[in-house]
What we know:
By secondary structure, the protein is an alpha+beta fold. The chain is 45% helix and 27% strand.
Amino acid sequence: MDRQRVQEVLDQIRPALQADGGDVELVDVTEDGVVKVELVGACKGCPMSQLTLANGVERVLKEQIPEVTRVEPV
């Protein structure tokens, strides 16, 4: 899976996270389609961060890059 493509999709999501004082950083992309990210800023300690990952980041990545199997926080 192309790491640059994953980064481009994260760049599309980033403004929504930044509007709430947070951000997401790409850590790794594995051969089996797992995207590892780190939530930073306000997202890091937010109780809603798992929901943000599942319903926001993971959903958008899977829509735009079908090879993505899941998104994991680091």
